[in-house]
Specification:
The chain has 282 residues and is α/β, with parallel strands linked by helices. It contains 10 helices and 10 strands. Helix 4 links the parallel strand 6 and strand 7. The longest helix is centred in the middle third of the chain and has 14 residues. One of its GO terms (molecular function) is oxidoreductase activity.
Length: 282
């Protein structure tokens, strides 16, 4: 099984994304069941944010994890840029903790850059880590220049992870950001790792190469895309799955090994970037 290490914890390389979960009351029972099934199948990481449904996702996660030991889970949430200041971050963090019904987060991410000086945001994140309210902090939607700026700050090298959009059809981070993070032993959390099928115009699930490899393994195209994402070292993928069957499919990708020839075929179908590209953000 593929794993990733974040803040000295070895974790399964596929976690649970929760964007849009909790938005529709009539779907919440299925969504809770899907999360619980995935936990029972070995998932540890659950990724949420105060932005997701204005806290509804965090409420849903709290309901889903009630039967399980908190110490066996790795909870991630995120602070919005307008709340990432000395004046407002404490309120945001405590509200997230209350909604999640926990007294600490394993990882707290700065969701994306805003107008608050980066040094102020990082100082606050480090303060909450020192207090024990969060075990570690990280960033999201940061590109290479952002990471280099962060690294020069007093507590910058304490960053535990960066979460960016990354999938077979969106490989821009491979040109310079991903090598930089690998050089600095900084994990990447990949959101939208299966690209919603055709996001960014990639039409991944319909590509003949993806379909052929999926058929060879007797799995879905989504599982091939997920296996490709975590085939790279030190990457945690957080696909969203609101149905129990999707959760089972996600788990199967943990043990799906693509051959060198299959990886080369996917590279030919969706080539790695040959120049710097703007960071893809959803």
């Amino acid at each position: 099984m593929k794993t990733v290490t974040i803040n000295h914890q070895v974790l399964p390389a596929i976690g649970i994304g929760t964007w849009h979960l909790g938005d529709q009351p009539q779907q919440q029972a299925k969504e809770i069941a899907a999360i619980r099934l995935r936990i029972e199948m070995g998932a540890q990481v659950i990724d949420t944010a105060e932005m997701y449904g204005n806290g509804r996702s965090e409420h849903l996660v709290a309901q889903a994890i009630k039967p399980y030991s908190r110490q066996k889970l790795f909870l991630i949430s995120k602070v919005l840029p307008q709340n990432a200041s000395h004046k407002r971050m404490a309120h945001s963090l405590k509200a997230s903790l209350q909604r999640l019904q926990t007294d600490y987060l394993d990882l707290y991410l700065y969701h994306w850059r805003g107008h608050v000086p980066l040094a102020e945001t990082i100082s606050e994140l480090q303060h909450f880590q020192d207090q024990g309210l969060i075990r570690a902090w990280g960033v999201s939607n940061f590109d290479l220049s952002d990471m280099q700026e962060l690294w020069q700050l007093p507590h910058g090298p304490n960053v535990a992870a960066n979460e960016d959009l990354y999938n077979l059809g969106s490989r821009g981070i491979e040109y310079s950001l991903l090598p930089w993070q690998q050089q600095h032993h900084l994990p990447m959390i990949a959101y939208s790792p299966v690209s919603n099928g055709d996001q960014l115009g990639a039409h991944l699930t319909q590509h003949p190469t993806v379909l052929q490899i999926a058929q060879q393994h007797q799995v879905s195209p989504y599982q091939i895309m997920l296996a490709w994402t975590i085939s790279h070292p030190n990457i945690l993928a957080i696909p969203k799955a609101s149905q129990p069957q999707h959760m089972k499919d996600n788990l199967a990708a943990l043990n799906l090994n693509l051959s060198t020839a299959e990886l080369a075929a996917l590279d030919q179908a969706y080539p790695a970037p040959q120049h710097k590209e703007p960071l893809d953000i959803l």
